[in-house]
Specification:
- This protein is globular.
- The protein has helices at 2-9, 14-26, 30-43, 48-60, 64-77, 82-94, 107-120, 129-138, 142-151, 162-181, 189-202, 206-219, 224-235, 242-257, 264-276, 280-286, 294-306, 311-326, 353-379; strands at 330-332, 338-340.
- The relative contact order is 0.06.
- The longest helix is centred in the C-terminal third of the chain and has 27 residues, at 353-379.
- It starts with a helix and ends in a 5-residue tail after the last helix.
- By secondary structure, it is an all-alpha fold.
- Helix 13 packs parallel to helix 15 (264-276).
């Protein structure tokens, strides 16, 4: 009613049209809210809040591609606008089909960015903590759930669902693993920071991961694994990473030309850096010496598939021969069907915690590739 009175006095006030849109959306009057946001944009075309509001309405209406595009434009106009990133996350999470405009962004990375901005900048329209909590739970980001709980004391127990409570318990176990890493005797500080960064990153808190990985970087800037996860920590909450990628590429290329014997982990993560930076052929060449390191071989196979190289079939045959002996990432049941192995768990009782973390890091980096490999193996005519 107040916005209506303001607009009756002067209908050229974009903020009034925008505020009216949010008020109407809160009343579930979405068509009227859409009209208000569109009117605000006719008055002020570069109004980030109105673009974000319009994206919110498209999300509610099931028009996820349009929702993502509107909110992406809002974030380009105002990169600190947390709600634009939250509604991008919603569009990516709700859309039944991949969104063409999304590039490498994921629902998880956009949500992490929204949480980071909510903590960092004052927002005219702050995000409801319960909404952040609900989406973080649905996306299985336990450490992000715990972070939201810690940062938002206003959340009451009645706002915490049973599934969120289970996620919080899981997050506290993971936090205890991170605490244990910091107390392992004989572990180099650079290793400790890298492992803490990996655990945070794999379990949904790239902000804390980035802090650990930056420290690891100051201790050993030539370690490819540190550079790779540092860049990934930025990508996982949508921070620009051009300088970090350029430095990581330099480390990766130095690894390529070093004389053998070469460290397998160093070579593997160097290749992941090259592939992440869209140098697929160079990544493949980096891994040419891999003969039985399955993460490296899977990465080569995936690159060969993307390059439509016929060698992909021979590579898959070789991988499945090794898997039939090791069963590390794929397993073949009595029905002779290939399936992905169970994901390694970072259990606090693990006898060799650093190795368990590295194995989990390999597995989660490979998860999409493994699913594609299992499908390819089962559809192939050849009996591996």
């Amino acid at each position: 009613a107040c916005y209506d009175r303001a607009l009756a006095l002067d209908n050229s006030i974009a903020d009034a049209w925008n505020g009216r849109g949010y008020a109407l959306a809160a009343l579930n009057k979405y068509d009227a809210a859409k009209d208000s946001f569109q009117h605000a944009l006719r008055v002020k075309p570069n109004f980030a809040y109105a673009w974000s509001g319009l994206g919110m309405i498209w999300n509610v209406s099931g028009r996820y591609d349009e929702a993502f595009s509107a909110c992406k434009h809002a974030a380009e106009l105002d990169p600190s606008l947390a709600q634009a990133w939250f509604h991008m996350a919603s569009a990516l999470a709700l859309s039944p089909m991949p969104i063409a405009d999304a590039s490498d962004r994921t629902a998880a990375s956009c949500l992490c960015r929204a949480v980071h901005l909510q903590e960092t900048f004052r927002q005219t329209f702050p995000l409801p903590p319960a909404s952040l909590l609900s989406m973080a739970t649905e996306l299985d980001l336990p450490l992000l759930v715990l972070r939201i709980i810690e940062k938002e004391p206003s959340i009451s127990p009645s706002q915490i669902s049973s599934s969120t409570a289970r996620t919080i318990s899981q997050a506290r176990l993971i936090a205890s693993i991170i605490e244990r890493i910091t107390s392992i005797a004989g572990l180099e500080e650079a290793d400790r920071e890298l492992l803490c960064g990996i655990v945070n990153l794999l379990n949904g808190d790239p902000m804390r991961a980035h802090a650990h990985l930056e420290h690891a970087d100051t201790l050993d800037e030539n370690r490819a694994a540190t550079q790779y996860f540092l860049v990934r920590s930025l990508a996982n909450f949508c921070e620009p990473a051009e300088k970090e990628i350029a430095f990581a590429l330099d480390v990766a290329r130095k690894t390529r030309v070093c004389a053998p014997p070469r460290n397998t982990e160093q070579v593997y993560y160097s290749a992941l850096i090259l592939d992440f930076a869209a140098h697929a052929a160079e990544a493949q060449e980096t891994l040419v010496s891999a003969t039985d390191h399955l993460p490296s071989l899977y990465t080569v196979w995936h690159i060969l598939c993307r390059l439509d190289n016929p060698l992909q079939h021979r590579m898959l045959s070789h991988i499945l021969y090794l898997e039939s002996q090791k069963g590390t990432f794929l397993k073949r049941g009595h029905d002779r069907v290939w399936r992905t192995a169970s994901a390694p768990r970072l259990m606090i009782e693990s006898a060799n915690l650093p190795e368990a973390i590295r194995l989990a890091a390999h597995f989660f980096e490979l998860s999409n590739i493994l699913a594609a490999a299992a499908k390819a193996a089962n559809s192939a005519a050849q009996d591996y």
